[in-house]
Amino acid sequence: MTAQDIDGKSIAAAVRAELTEKLASLPDGSSKPGLAVMLVGERKDSQTYVRMKQKACADCGMDSFLCTYPDDDKLNEELLLAQIKDWNEDPKVHGILVQLPLPKKIDEATILEAVLPAKDVDGLHPANAAKLFNTATHAGAAKLDWKDMTSIPFHIPCTPQGCIELLDRIGCDIEGKNAVVIGRSNLVGLPVAMLLLHRNATVTIVHSRTKSVEDVVRNADIVVAAVGRAHMVTKSYLKPGCTVIDVGINSVDAPGTKRGYRLVGDVKYDEAKEIAEWITPVPGGVGPMTIAMLLRNTWNGWRRTTEEK
Amino acid sequence: MTAQDIDGKSIAAAVRAELTEKLASLPDGSSKPGLAVMLVGERKDSQTYVRMKQKACADCGMDSFLCTYPDDDKLNEELLLAQIKDWNEDPKVHGILVQLPLPKKIDEATILEAVLPAKDVDGLHPANAAKLFNTATHAGAAKLDWKDMTSIPFHIPCTPQGCIELLDRIGCDIEGKNAVVIGRSNLVGLPVAMLLLHRNATVTIVHSRTKSVEDVVRNADIVVAAVGRAHMVTKSYLKPGCTVIDVGINSVDAPGTKRGYRLVGDVKYDEAKEIAEWITPVPGGVGPMTIAMLLRNTWNGWRRTTEEK
């Protein structure tokens, strides 16, 4: 068997085209979704990510706002908190994104928790996390339709949401499947495990202290690798016919290439390709979904605001 | 093999004795931990639980406060919220417990979220839940010692905490073990899964939509059954030598007995006894731990308050 690629690039493009179309069909003079981005310090990678996010907003007809802060003597938490407060109160801003990591002297949790949960399009605020980690089915609990993530009334983190969107778009029926998540980070592993659980998968979380990761993963119909170790998952880890979502983006030496390195996933793609049914390439798999889901969250925040009126 | 019983009754008694001793050794005139309990309506079972909790406080030298509200025309959320606010501000109150379930016309989430997280000894507030569902290991994240649950600076739900305490007191080394949690409720299944993960178990969560629960559970070194189905887990589900924590308390008909019913767990105890190494009986296993952990949370809340001064 040769696995089919899960083409994250074209799936992300499709999501973005859907949003573009929705926004283009608004009457003239309508309010538009707006994303505010905070960039602190001079990291080149952060600058690139922020530019990509702003361009993506423009491409699909959303507003974006940027505040940059050099990492100098004047930088402090109060300065950033004041800006967050402004954006929280600004009706033109529907999503607030704090580009991470922040410089060491700034406490990330303090800044992230200052963002209004309704505008927390990264889904990192404890109020949003607590709702995601909730399976309440008692009488008073809101009945959520997890098969339609845009109907969920709070923000779901972008990369985990993108993983599930990929599975949906290839027609993968998650319910009842054995899903194994490799890695237990707050940014990816844990939230993706919760999303799989909400979709009624049987979910196992493995990590650095797991004995015989290989044996556990080999039971999986769906593997989500989010551990950040280049090529950790080889052919022998995989059950024939499984679906592989590779969240890892690791740079490995590639002497003789122009850049001197190349990006690879947590999964040994060439080997996995021989045994899986579906697999995300790296790059071009999960990566492009993150921005698409960020746009969708911003649109969703805007939609909820306008519907409330 | 015949499994040894995990004697929750005597372990809970030991925990309570430790607290009693700590409190007895305080200088005369010291402040004491205080638990405030809200009881709404006329459910006999709730009245019994509340009485047990108050008696447990008295036995170990803590204060307890009780407010009861009949489920009548005068009952409304404002009335309950005003009482919660009073307790939030009362320095004699270190723990606030709202006995559930509340009458239908009261929104449970509204009441529970009004409790100050630092006094939320049931660990049900979203702020506490968000902290439990957090594995942050980045530089800025607080380093938590999950092997000493009393050192965790927020409230962990009582029954899940009791499950882990039982494992600790029989000397079960959780790290690296395969743990399977049956059930995904917010009250037990999910938080116990998180606690096992924090202790570096490899955790699988199974539920009503899982295919072949039996096959999954048979891989488990540690089984936590929290599903509420009498005798669902039989001998064929269990790996020889496993440890079984049975959270279920189900009443089944017992014609000819005085009460006409008896209480059984989610696990078929007699069969499991033949194959497991350790097992909690029902009753007398997990049950008694809930109140012991409630007392410990209240003591912990008090201790943190006094240490801050």
TrEMBL record, chains A, B:
<dbReference type="InterPro" id="IPR046346">
    <property type="entry name" value="Aminoacid_DH-like_N_sf"/>
</dbReference>
<keyword id="KW-0511">Multifunctional enzyme</keyword>
<feature type="domain" description="Tetrahydrofolate dehydrogenase/cyclohydrolase NAD(P)-binding">
    <location>
        <begin position="157"/>
        <end position="304"/>
    </location>
</feature>
<dbReference type="GO" id="GO:0005829">
    <property type="term" value="C:cytosol"/>
</dbReference>
<keyword id="KW-0554">One-carbon metabolism</keyword>
<feature type="domain" description="Tetrahydrofolate dehydrogenase/cyclohydrolase catalytic">
    <location>
        <begin position="6"/>
        <end position="122"/>
    </location>
</feature>
<dbReference type="InterPro" id="IPR020630">
    <property type="entry name" value="THF_DH/CycHdrlase_cat_dom"/>
</dbReference>
<dbReference type="Pfam" id="PF00763">
    <property type="entry name" value="THF_DHG_CYH"/>
</dbReference>
<dbReference type="InterPro" id="IPR020631">
    <property type="entry name" value="THF_DH/CycHdrlase_NAD-bd_dom"/>
</dbReference>
<dbReference type="InterPro" id="IPR020867">
    <property type="entry name" value="THF_DH/CycHdrlase_CS"/>
</dbReference>
<keyword id="KW-0521">NADP</keyword>
<dbReference type="GO" id="GO:0035999">
    <property type="term" value="P:tetrahydrofolate interconversion"/>
</dbReference>
<dbReference type="Pfam" id="PF02882">
    <property type="entry name" value="THF_DHG_CYH_C"/>
</dbReference>
<dbReference type="GO" id="GO:0004477">
    <property type="term" value="F:methenyltetrahydrofolate cyclohydrolase activity"/>
</dbReference>
<comment type="pathway">
    <text>One-carbon metabolism; tetrahydrofolate interconversion.</text>
</comment>
<keyword id="KW-0378">Hydrolase</keyword>
<keyword id="KW-0560">Oxidoreductase</keyword>
<dbReference type="InterPro" id="IPR000672">
    <property type="entry name" value="THF_DH/CycHdrlase"/>
</dbReference>
<protein>
    <submittedName>
        <fullName>Uncharacterized protein</fullName>
    </submittedName>
</protein>
<comment type="subunit">
    <text>Homodimer.</text>
</comment>
<dbReference type="GO" id="GO:0004488">
    <property type="term" value="F:methylenetetrahydrofolate dehydrogenase (NADP+) activity"/>
</dbReference>
<dbReference type="InterPro" id="IPR036291">
    <property type="entry name" value="NAD(P)-bd_dom_sf"/>
</dbReference>
